[in-house]
Design a protein that fits this description.
This protein has 17 helices and 8 strands. The chain is an alpha/beta fold. The protein has one domain: TIM Barrel (Alpha-Beta Barrel), CATH 3.20.20.140. It has an 8-stranded parallel beta sheet. The protein is globular. 46% of the residues are buried. It binds hypoxanthine (HPA) and zinc ion.
Length: 331
């Protein structure tokens, strides 16, 4: 079987995806137009040409600007349902994804507008496509602790919609420890704890995510391999890493996909997974990430099966559901 087809037919879960990062320029223009909001670009092509990033911050500036056209429940529904439609075409059966409430509430869009649109699309994804999903509230780390605490209080009436809390945005200068108190509150409510760490930031930030935030899963974590003790802890505790190959390439975390650490990490026994992060901005959805990394690192079909199986092991699905999907991999 050809590589592409092999990847397509593998059951897979996506565990690192920002819904705002699935905003394709075509939909951005359509929603901007119906809401009477002008984008600073004159065409879809011009938007795509702007997607050249030297680092995380250059991407974030454009990503936050794009989200400004989202105003109404239907906008959040359309964004989310478009993503699930693509995932259905890619053989994805489960998704655990982030949204950034502060990006919207800071513009005067209400928490409930955002949640209603997103969760209605999640319900439809289940009934139309059989795709299950879980929503993760992500805190913007470049904003203050106070803003994060206030956001968590605003989220309280909606906590039943969330499986977890995460930490994203500009990493350097914003260590995980800045948000210890917010994450403590979230843990007390039974939410799973996630954090982006070690994408651009040092291993010390990953240690903090482990020891101070007490994460259940690590987003990115590329730079963990600089610290042997850290690698050992991640292996011993089987803390999952959600790696994002095309994101790493576009944001110059790696200069070339052949330098990507995922194969080394697999060899070390780390629980690594493949994900797409912000696919509309980074040039590929989940299958394109599997394809690109398989080609660059010459991964075998067994490696790919392992990565797909890991996506279930690392998920927050019930144990019996994990086993059911993993067994499908080896028929
Ligand atoms: N890193 C940090 N913040 C983000 C990312 C990312 O890859 N994507 C969306 N917000
Ligand atoms: Zn991310």
């Amino acid at each position: 079987m050809e590589l592409k087809q092999f990847i397509q037919q593998l059951p897979k879960a996506e565990l690192h995806l920002h819904i705002e990062g699935t905003f394709e320029p075509e939909l951005m223009f359509a929603i901007g137009k119906r809401n009477g909001i002008e984008l600073k670009y004159s065409s879809v092509e011009e938007v795509r040409e702007a997607y050249q990033f030297a680092n995380l911050q250059e991407f974030l500036d454009i990503y936050y600007a794009g989200a400004q056209v989202l105003l109404y429940e239907q906008d959040f529904y359309d964004l989310t349902f478009a993503y699930f439609t693509r995932m259905h075409q890619q053989g994805v059966v489960h998704v655990e994804f982030f949204f950034d409430p502060q990006t919207h509430t800071d513009r005067g869009v209400s928490f409930s507008t955002v949640i209603k649109g997103i969760t209605r699309a999640m319900d439809d994804a289940r009934s139309h496509f059989g795709i299950s999903s879980g929503l993760i509230l992500s805190v913007l780390r470049h904003l203050s602790e106070e803003s994060a605490l206030q956001t968590f209080e605003e989220a309280r009436p909606f906590l039943s919609y969330f499986i977890g809390i995460g930490l994203d945005s500009s990493e350097m200068g914003h260590p995980p420890v800045k948000f210890s108190r917010v994450f403590e509150k979230a843990r007390a409510e039974g939410l799973k704890i996630l954090a982006h760490a070690g994408e651009e930031g040092p291993p010390a930030y990953i240690w903090q995510a482990l020891n101070e935030l007490k994460i259940d899963r690590l987003d990115h974590g590329n730079r963990s391999i600089e610290d042997d003790d850290l690698v050992q802890v991640l292996v011993e505790r089987q803390i999952a890493l959600t790696l994002c190959p095309l994101s790493n390439l576009k944001l110059q975390v790696v200069k070339d996909l052949r330098d990507h650490p995922i194969k080394y990490m697999l060899g070390k026994g780390m629980l690594v997974t493949v994900n797409s992060d912000d696919p509309a901005y980074f040039g590929g959805y989940l299958n394109e990430n599997y394809e690109a990394i398989a080609e660059a690192l010459n991964l075998s079909k067994d490696d790919l099966r392992k990565l797909a199986a890991n996506s279930f092991t690392a998920s927050f699905l019930h144990e019996d559901e994990k086993q059911r999907y993993i067994q499908m991999m080896y028929v």
